[in-house]
# Entry
Amino acid sequence: MFKLRYIALSVILILGIVLAGCSSSTRVAKSGDTVQVNYVGKLADGTVFDTSVGRRPYEFTLGAGQVIEGFDKAVVGMKVGEKKTVTIPSAEAYGPHIDSLVVHIARNKIKLDTEPAVGQVLTATSPDGKKITFVVTGVSDNGTITLDANNPLAGKDLTFDIELLKIK
# Structure
């Protein structure tokens, strides 16, 4: 009788371990999953450029192109509750800074409601109807304005602290 109880308890214990290993808490995020994360994005010098902390968690579908490539790759394989820090090279973030997307234009060639200032964001419409966003990166005394159509994070390696909160 003792042996039978011992075997029964052993089987129950083994089943418990196996079933615990199959719970959703050990499920890993994979392409196609919708996930919720908290993140802090930092530049190489430690400057925070974006965060979800203190706001609603960020939700997206892995592999759907909703986030930069490197961020997507970083979340794949994570478990709920897991935290990690990753550095994403510019090639997997916003790409290289492209010099041909920087233009110098005479102030009198563009119509503005206010005087241009460094850091100001301007939007223009291309001949095919697409919206193009420029950041004013320079204003000279001779009336020339420098406009940059690159993403402000182009050419930069980015570091993210990521916490996976939920896999749907």
User: Anything to note?
Assistant: The longest strand covers residues 158-167.
